[in-house]
Amino acid sequence: MNRLFEIFFIFLLLVFSSGIVCITEAQEYGGGPIVFIKPVRAVIFEHRLHLGKKLNCMSCHPGLFAKKAGEVEEKEDFTMASFNRGKYCGKCHDGTTAFSVNTKCVWCHIGVQGHKRLEEFELGK
Amino acid sequence: MKSMKSDRGKLKGDTGKVSLEERRRFLGLGLKITGVLAGGSLLSLVPVEGAKSELLGASVVGTYTYEPHYAMLIYKDRCIDCERCIEACEQTNNVPSYGYRITILGRKKTGVEASKMIREFLPVLCNQCNRPPCVRVCPTKATFKDKKNGIVMMKESLCVGCKACMTACPYNARYYNRETESVDKCDFCFRRRLTSGEINTACVDACPADALFFGDLSDQKSEIYNLLHKPEQEILVLRPESNSMPNVFYL
């Protein structure tokens, strides 16, 4: 009986510790890349390139973007036009804080082929 | 020398009235068409220094022989590979899933951007060449250059499916359509749109990034004419060494 408890305890410890690692990694990286397919396929966003330095979770969530991935895509004003007016990505990508949204298109737009590649090799779908 | 000076003064006086050609001639620029060379089977973007417009370009100033002279201008840094042009083309021209009339080439960028896995995209469609190699090789004259508007078109009933034109095309812009048993290609949407009064091709209308621009070069007041004839503008064409004088230009 005692031994059973011991095994159970170790099992619990393993589960929790791996959970803790996941959480800290998420805080550090925010998981893998986020890919938007609306309104245009496909735009990539990498948490690991944005977090750190001056930005933390609260810089964007939940003020600019909802925490749930894909929720912002449903909004009608999630377009380049509103980015240019300083909404969403345009809040920082205005040419002074970070490069302007009307330049360097392909830094974020990975395209249909890029999305397919990403699905195949990175997300393993 | 004296006359030069007075000329210059005259030009300075009313620059607004001086046409683009005159300015260009005065500046001694010509329409500089540098090249995009072939690298392997893909078309790569390597500019050729000092390529002469007299030899290669379709658009030596004032030599637009067709009326209307349809041409397309592609801003190569605007394409984001959303493939809406491909979708629109497939719907408009009944292109099967295995075929294409417009493709988007992609390749990794060089330099700093290479480390970030950033790619660049290049839409490629039929260049409607002034000296079309596909027309030259066709044994049955199924493909021809329209005498009025210069569009390279297909007469499906004459095509025997020898695919010589597909081999001859420097831009890989043709495919064999199994349903019609003939080779199919882009005709600037002439049959489906231009004849019914539309002014733009399907791909141009579908592009969300305004990467494609379509127009008539024989009309000197048209927007595409002015975009192409800006002094000091460097214009690229695909595979100038094939000497086909394309009508699709890249900026």
Provide key terms for this protein:
heterodimer, A: 125 residues, two-stranded antiparallel ribbon, 6 helices, 45% helix, B: alpha+beta, 3-stranded mixed sheet, two-stranded parallel sheet, 8 helices, 13 strands, 22% helix, 21% strand, globular
Please state the oligomeric state of the protein chains shown.
Answer: heterodimer
Rounded to the nearest angstrom, the distance between the terminal CA atoms of chain B is: 37 Å
Mean pLDDT of chain B: 78
| Fraction of residues in β-strands of chain B | 15-25%
Q: How large is the count of helical segments of chain A? A: 6
How are the strands of the largest sheet of chain B arranged?
11-4-13
Category by helix and strand content of chain A: mainly alpha
Number of strands of chain A: 2
Fold and architecture overview:
The complex is a heterodimer of chains A (125) and B (251). Chain A is mainly alpha-helical and 125 residues long. Chain A contains 6 helices and 2 strands, in the order αββααααα. Chain A has a two-stranded antiparallel ribbon. In chain A, a hairpin with a 6-residue loop joins strand 1 (34-36) and strand 2 (43-45). Chain B is an alpha+beta fold. Chain B is 22% helix and 21% strand. Chain B is built from 8 helices and 13 strands. Chain B has helices at residues 2-13, 20-27, 53-56, 84-93, 133-137, 164-168, 202-206, 223-228, and strands at 33-36, 38-39, 42-43, 70-74, 102-108, 119-125, 143-145, 152-154, 174-177, 182-185, 212-216, 235-238, 248-250. In chain B, strands 11-4-13 form a 3-stranded mixed beta sheet. Chain B has a two-stranded parallel sheet with strand order 1-12. Chain B is globular and about 50 Å long. Chain B starts with a helix and ends with a strand. The relative contact order of chain B is 0.22. Residues 1-15 and 32-62 of chain B have low confidence and may be disordered. The A-B interface holds A 39-42, 105-107, 109-114 and B 77-84, 104, 106, 109, 113, 116, 118-121, 208-209.
